[in-house]
Amino acid sequence: MDHLWSGFQASTTSLTRLLLLRDLLCCQFMWHTSYRGHDTGKLRLRDFRDPRGGGPFRGFPLPLPDPFGAYPSLSLRIEQLGTKTSKGRRAPPLELRPDPSPRHCFLRTLALYWQLCHAPDAPPGSAISDYLFRPTDRGHQRFVERPFSSSALAMRVGKHLEEAGVYVGQTPHGFRRGTIQATQAAGASRAELHAFSQIRSAQVLERYTDASRPTRVPRGSGPRS
User: Does residue 112 lie in a domain region?
Assistant: First the structure.
């Protein structure tokens, strides 16, 4: 994540800055939620719900972060419609709150991403109206209104890890395994791990919490945006 922030600060074009923030947000979201790359890439505005219960969330844009202060004490409630586990239903609700580390805070990054997506100099198609994370067109000049595919996300994550010199075959799925194992190490019960991961099977959860299992190197190469 530090590598992505450094790239963002050094970039000079609005498209590059948005692509880096999009990728960073995906990584932060997967880490904080244990969501699969496939479900992360199809997150929509309608999946954000009013934390007081009821209808859709009406609080966008989020307040911009103070570079020198703590982020406001607020939370985002997400109930994604149609995850791999929930199919045609909404997934169990999850709350995202400010992270004490600014570089890891999904809410801070989302506030900045929203501002840049709606800025006057933003690339065509940048304004967020449905999908939160979107790919660019074939010419890499504009964003298109469709989900950010798990394969494209995997290639982008691999590219950033290679550039940072820490790539050893990780995929977006590795965020899921890693955060489930970190949650277990923090003392979560088995029931809490099942709820956090949306994994019903005890055998499947056991595979995720087994740190000795190797990480598979994905087939294919070449970054996509």
Answer: yes
- The reply to whether 216 falls in a domain is no
Write the burial class of residue 211 (CB in 10 Å: 0-12 exposed, 13-18 middle, 19+ buried): exposed
CATH code of the domain containing 196: 1.10.443.10
Q: Which domain holds residue 180?
A: 2-209
* Number of domains present in the structure of the chain: 1
Distance CA 187, CA 193 (A): 10
Per-residue tens of pLDDT for the chain, all 225 residues: 788 989 998 998 999 999 999 999 999 999 999 999 999 999 999 999 998 877 999 999 999 988 777 888 899 999 999 888 888 899 889 999 999 988 899 999 999 999 999 999 999 999 999 999 999 999 999 999 999 999 999 999 889 888 888 776 767 777 788 889 989 999 999 998 988 888 888 999 999 898 877 555 443 444 445
